[in-house]
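Hey, can you fold this one?
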Amino acid sequence: MQNLELLKSKLSSPSKIVITTHVKPDADALGSSLGMANYLIKKGHDVQVITPSEYPAFLHWMKGNDDVLVYSEDTHEASQSLMNQAEVIITLDFSVLSRINQLGEMVKEANGFKVNVDHHLDPEDFADFRLWNTGAAATCELCYELIVALGDRDLIDKDIAECLYAGIMTDTGGFRHPNTTQNVHEVVANLIAHGADNSRVSKEIYDKNSINRLRFLGYALSQNLQVLPESRVAFFALSEDELQKYNSKTGDTEGLVNYALSIEGITLAGLFKESSDGVKISLRSIGKFPANEVANKYFNGGGHRNAAGGKVDISLEEAVNRFKGVLGEYKDQLEEEYRRL
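Sure. Predicted structure:
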């Protein structure tokens, strides 16, 4: 943890602080942002969370959600002004500025003291203080550790604890993934001790579906799922028309790729989602199979070994064909990982 004393000095008196996170925030991104915001507000700071884009409705329960500025929803001038005025800029759950779209240039040009807390690979050198650990399961895990290191464990209340719990819960797949370490359980136990209602958080995120989303999931599973048993691969390829047919909202495809990965005999799963500006790809894998390598080499992306993604400016059919075309390169690894586990 570099320059902790310098960060302490920057936060020792009330400051104007902007917090931002990656485009299409998930529970770890928003949970770390609002968890840190609520903590810093208790410290007396003037805090504004700005997200590059909208995020799923199942995250709106977090304290501070109503005050979040969404850059893509006509808050461009406000965001620019706040970024220019910020004395401290905290960037969470991303390692390169391109992950926050137009906000990236604002952060780069801003004069404020820049903080980066993240667990992704290959960080860009833009921060004055960085807490970076690829061994961490979630950025929320690191945010908890940062608050403790700053000497403010006692400031963690129920709202802060639940924001941080949400990010850890989801980034570990409900504590099922191999990144669920001893430290994860210890941090989660402490968050529960600080008031986090683990049952409530789980219900808010996993058990509040719209009828349209359930019908969409039924359609995707029955009509869209493609399984290549000889390759140990399964995937969904959803067109823009299919998504519109079920009035798909942000977050409606969340977790869909995991259904493909749950099939017996599958090592690598994918979700290809078409939109007006290209095809977004989500990849999940088991064991040591490098989903992030596939995302990086072929889909302009990256991520973690077992959870990665990317985006390409080609048709849905071309993206799927590209994916199928590279499976031969990984044939032995796909089979080996299945056999090993």
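The chain has two domains: 4-206, 211-340. Let me know if you want another pass with a different chain boundary.
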